[in-house]
Specification:
alpha/beta, Rossmann fold, five-stranded parallel beta sheet, 10 helices, SGNH_hydro_sf, Lysophospholipase, signal, SGNH_hydro
Length: 226
C-alpha cells in the first residue's frame, strides 16, 4: 500500500511539473504569436512591397506601351497610375492627352519606342522623335506643373534580337531620346543598368519582363517623386 502511494505521488508530481513547463513556454512558440522569421517574411512580402510602391507613386502616371503596361498587369501599380497598351507608339500616345490631363498627375514617366523602332517607315527614329516632341509639348501645355521624365527603351535578349534584327537600333533610339530630353529640359533615366547583370528578369519572349523588374525600376525612380 505504501509503495502504491509513493508511485501515485511521483506521477502527480510529474504531471504538475509538465503543466508548469507548458505554462512557461516561450512566446515565440505560442501558436498565437508569429515567430521572428514569420514576422520578417510578412514585412517583406510582395503584397507589402506593392502597397508601398502604390503609395509612393500615387500622384504619378506612367505613359507607354506594353512594356510599361506590365506595371499594372503585374499589380505593381494601380491601373489609374498606368496609361499604356500593346502597340502604343509616340504617335498613338497623342490620343491619350485628354485622359492624362483628367488624371492630373504631378509626375509623368514616358516609356515609348519599343514599337516605334519597328514602325514601317523609311526612318522610324526620326518619325518617332518628331511625334515624341509633339507629345511632350502637348503635355507641357495641358499640365504645366507636371514633372516629365523620359525612360529609355529596354534592351531585349540576344535571341529576341536575332528574331527581330531591328531591335539592334535600340541604343541609337535611346540616344535620340536623351537628346530630346536635353532639348526639352525634362528628365531622362536610363533603365538598362537594371538588367545589365543577367536575363533572369525577362519573360519568355525576351522582350517583356517579370514582376521583379518593375520593382527594381520603381526603386530606381522613387527618389524622383519625393
Amino acid at each position: 500500500m505504501i509503495m502504491k502511494k509513493i508511485i501515485t505521488t511521483i506521477l502527480i508530481g510529474g504531471f504538475t511539473l509538465a503543466l508548469a513547463a507548458c505554462g512557461n513556454e516561450p512566446a515565440s512558440t505560442n501558436p498565437q504569436q508569429p515567430s521572428p522569421q514569420a514576422q520578417e517574411h510578412k514585412a517583406t512580402s510582395p503584397v507589402a512591397t506593392a502597397t508601398s510602391y502604390k503609395s509612393l507613386f500615387q500622384n504619378t502616371v506612367f505613359l507607354g506601351d506594353s512594356i510599361t503596361e506590365g506595371l499594372s498587369f503585374h499589380d505593381v501599380l494601380d491601373e489609374g497610375n498606368v496609361l499604356a497598351g500593346a502597340g502604343k507608339t509616340a504617335e498613338f500616345a497623342l490620343e491619350d492627352i485628354d485622359e492624362l490631363t483628367k488624371r492630373d498627375p504631378k509626375h509623368i514617366f514616358i516609356q515609348l519606342g519599343s514599337d516605334d523602332i519597328l514602325w514601317p517607315t523609311d526612318n522610324p527614329k526620326e518619325y518617332s522623335i518628331k511625334n515624341y516632341a509633339k507629345l511632350i509639348e502637348m503635355i507641357k501645355e495641358k499640365l504645366p506643373q507636371a514633372k516629365i521624365t523620359l525612360l529609355t527603351v529596354t534592351p531585349v535578349t540576344a535571341e529576341a534580337e536575332k528574331q527581330e534584327p531591328r531591335y539592334k537600333n535600340i541604343n541609337d533610339y535611346n540616344q535620340g531620346l536623351k537628346e530630346l530630353a536635353d532639348k526639352e529640359h525634362i528628365g531622362f533615366t536610363d533603365l538598362s543598368p537594371i538588367i545589365s547583370n543577367g536575363t533572369d528578369l525577362y519573360d519568355s519572349d525576351g522582350i517583356h519582363f517579370k514582376p521583379k523588374f518593375y520593382a527594381r525600376m520603381l526603386d530606381q525612380l522613387k527618389d524622383q517623386v519625393n
